[in-house]
Amino acid sequence: AQKVTQAQTEISVVEKEDVTLDCVYETRDTTYYLFWYKQPPSGELVFLIRRNSFDEQNEISGRYSWNFQKSTSSFNFTITASQVVDSAVYFCALSPYNTDKLIFGTGTRLQVFP
Amino acid sequence: NAGVMQNPRHLVRRRGQEARLRCSPMKGHSHVYWYRQLPEEGLKFMVYLQKENIIDESGMPKERFSAEFPKEGPSILRIQQVVRGDSAAYFCASSPGPGTSGGAAGAGTDTQYFGPGTRLTVL
């Protein structure tokens, strides 16, 4: 079965705290792609990152970083020094090899308070 | 820098009416995907289209739902005889196509860029 689990339904932090959003996936494919999207209160989906299964290097982009661990089938997302503008629902998604669809987790709602 | 366009942004229909949702992909993108997001849930894949072709409709309900992506013009998701359970946000995404993002094969390896969504309310 292909599945994405985001066990954290909602997280609340105070500005400047670091926060990690968990993502665990299931697939039997050896080649696949993982994504994170942000859905702010305005409702659109914003692409954050795409990672293929052969690249386990961690990635950092400004205050955002991603930790991909094939051994635990996890692709976690960390926001450093969170800001109020980071408040959104964050979705992790899986795209198995040679398919055309994204399989989304149920999302984690992050609230950052001033 | 025109991204994926969807209209209308909000649509209200009464039970039994038809709903038509439109999606114009990003410039240069020839692949369109439709997803549905029910309240408090993640997005669920519905259908994948290329120009004039339906490639994968495995997520489409068997009845009342149809999609097209004509040679000219936007992609259309049509819902006939809407029911209250159709109330949801419908998102369209587009991608350039297979192989253009360095992927080995399959359009699923491309990054899909999403539109702002159409929020359908059925009264």
Note the overall shape of chain A: globular
CA radius of gyration of chain A: 14 Å
Name the structural class of chain B.
mainly beta
The largest interface is:
A-B, 28 and 32 residues
- Cα-atom Rg of chain B, whole angstroms? 14 Å
Helix proportion of chain B: under 10%
Query: pLDDT average of chain B, as an integer?
Result: 89
Identify the quaternary structure here: heterodimer
Report the sheet-strand fraction of chain B.
over 45%
By DSSP, the count of extended strands of chain B is: 11
- Shape verdict of chain B: globular
Q: What is the H-and-E element order of chain B?
A: EEEEEEEEEEE
Distance between the termini of chain B: 36 Å
**Overall mean pLDDT of chain A:** 93
Question: How large is the share of residues in beta strands of chain A?
Answer: over 45%
Q: N-to-C terminal Cα separation of chain A, in Å?
A: 41 Å
Order of helices and strands of chain A: EEEEEEEEEEEE
Descriptors:
heterodimer; A: mainly beta; globular; B: 123 residues; mainly beta; 7-stranded mixed beta sheet; 4-stranded antiparallel beta sheet
How would you describe the overall organization of this protein?
The complex is a heterodimer of chains A (114) and B (123). Chain A contains no helices and 12 strands. Chain A is mainly β and 114 residues long. In chain A, strands 2, 5, 6, 10, 11 and 12 form a 6-stranded mixed β-sheet that branches. A 4-stranded antiparallel β-sheet of chain A has the order 3-9-8-7, with no helix packed on it. A two-stranded antiparallel sheet of chain A has the order 1-4. With 123 residues, chain B is mainly β. Helices cover 0% and strands 46% of the residues of chain B. In chain B, the strands form 2 sheets. In chain B, strands 2, 4, 5, 6, 9, 10 and 11 form a 7-stranded mixed β-sheet that branches. Chain B has a 4-stranded antiparallel β-sheet with strand order 1-3-8-7, with no helix packed on it. Chain B is globular and about 35 Å long. The N and C termini of chain B lie far apart (36 Å). At the A-B interface, strand 5, strand 6, strand 10 and strand 11 of A face strand 4, strand 5, strand 9 and strand 10 of B.
